[in-house]
Structures are given as structure tokens and as C-alpha cells.
Amino acid sequence: MIEELELLSNPKSRVAEAIKTVRTNLEFSSADAKTQKIMLTSSVPAEGKSFIAACLAESYAASGKKVLIIDCDMRRGRQYEIFGVPNSKGLSNLLISDLNGVKIKTIKTKLEGVYLLPGGTIPPNPSELLESQKMADLVENLEKDYDIILFDCPPVIGLSDAMIVTKYVDTSVIVVAHKVTPSELLKKTVKTLESVNARISGIIYNKVPTSSSGYYDHYYNGYYND
Ligand SMILES: Nc1ncnc2c1ncn2[C@@H]1O[C@H](COP(=O)(O)OP(=O)(O)OP(=O)(O)O)[C@@H](O)[C@H]1O
Ligand SMILES: [Mg+2]
Asked: How confident is the model over 111-147, as pLDDT tens digits?
């Protein structure tokens, strides 16, 4: 996983270039907000949401922003793996504890300016926890301390988690893996998010093979909206 971190902190990589474009588009999509809250989701598992969230975090931080990633995937979140930190005191643990007057601790990562709240111990009821008043309070509490909060979510199809998270964010980004996501499913994902009035800033088209070699060169992005 260190390999992923190294890649995303290399400013010369193609990923870094593409992510910069995504960031610029997102900046235009909510110029007024003090803290920008962005959700990343996709249709099906393993399209690259978590990787892209970490890339975006690094890119924002490199431009001087203080960034927090909240791993909202309490089922199989792996931000703690990407950043090589413990997962024992994460979102799920906070959401079942008494947060009244408590200063919420996040993890300062190896990337300057990037902080992480990992998913935590896998709970039996992730959707319920995300829907709780405590989650709303936690976001309100955290947004005072960061310029950007990235919400790394599970996929939309078959789970309500990402739909629930839309109510805490300003905008959402859908990650689509090249030749993985059937277009029907992508349409369903967009419809599902629109049914809860989510604002969709764009689609990141990920894992696109290029002629150059190197595993992580497989990246591209595109916008369909906004
Ligand atoms: N652009 C890319 N090029 C090559 N591999 C990638 C790229 N993006 C992601 N991957 C790899 O694909 C795998 C899945 O990525 P990731 O965990 O970010 O997906 P995810 O959508 O968050 O999955 P999940 O649905 O389980 O949360 C990881 O091994 C990651 O390193
Ligand atoms: Mg993920």
C-alpha cells in the first residue's frame, strides 16, 4: 500500500496531473462554501473510489488546504491500509460513543496536510450509524477544522450508505472503472443519487489503459455534468 502512497505523492505522475483537473472542476462547483465536502462513490465495488479519494486529498493538501478523509465505508473501508495507520479508533467507534463536548481526534498521515478518520471496527449496522444524529453532529464538529472533507463511500448499487452520506456533502463524484461498470448500472447509480437530490459534480473515468507502461498510469477523467 505504501506503493500507492508514493505514487500519489509523486507530482510528475499522470495520476497527479489528472487529479489536478478534477480538483479544479470541483473548486468551480462550490466556490462559496467555507469547507468543501465531497463524496466519492461508484456503482460497484473496486472501481477505485478509495484510491482516488487519497489522490484527491494529496492534491488538495499540496495546494495548501487542510484535508480530512472520512472513511464512510465501515464494511470494507481500506483508507487505513493506504495510509498504513491503525483502524481501531475510527468512525464506527466514534458513532457508538458519547461525543458530547469531545474533541474528535483524527489521524495525521504521512502526507503533509492530510488527516484521516478511518472506518473503524466493522459494526453490524453501518447504514443506521451513518443515518444517526451523531453522524450529523460529527460532521458539523469536524468541518470547523478542515478546508476540505472527502467522504469515501461504498458503492451505490445494493447499499444505502452512499445515499445517506449525500445529505452531509455539497457534491458527489462517481468513479467509473473502464470496462467494468455496465452503462445500465451507471445510469441506475446516477438515478439513485438524483432521487435523493444529490448534486453530482462529475464522473471520474478510472483504470483506463494507456500506451505507456506502469500499473498506475491507468487513469483518466471526464465530466458529464456541471
Ligand atoms: N487508476 C488505477 N490504476 C490501477 N489500479 C488502480 C487504479 N485505481 C485503483 N486501483 C486499484 O484497484 C483496487 C481497488 O481500488 P480501491 O480500493 O480504491 O477501489 P474502491 O472502489 O474503493 O473499492 P471498494 O468498493 O472495495 O471500496 C486497488 O488495488 C487499487 O490500488
Ligand atoms: Mg473503497
From this structure: 999 999 999 999 999 999 999 999 999 999 999 999 9
| Ligand 1 centroid to residue 27 C-alpha, Å | 24
Ligand 1 pocket, 51 CB below 6 A?
A: yes
113 is a domain residue: yes
Looking at residue 201, which CATH number applies to its domain?
3.40.50.300
And the C-alpha cell for 40? 466519492
Domain that holds residue 102: 2-217
- Distance of CA 203 from the midpoint of ligand 2 (Å): 16
Count of domains observed in the chain? 1
Residues 6+ apart with CB under 8 A from 223: 25, 201, 202, 203
What are the tens digits of pLDDT across the range 27-39? 776 666 688 999 9
The angle subtended at Cα 55 by Cα 94 and Cα 122, nearest 5°, is 30
Q: Are 80 and 119 in contact (CB under 8 A)?
A: yes
Q: Is 132 domain-assigned?
A: yes
Distance 120 CA to ligand 2 centre (A): 14
Structural domain includes residue 225: no
User: In this structure, is residue 222 part of a structural domain?
Assistant: no
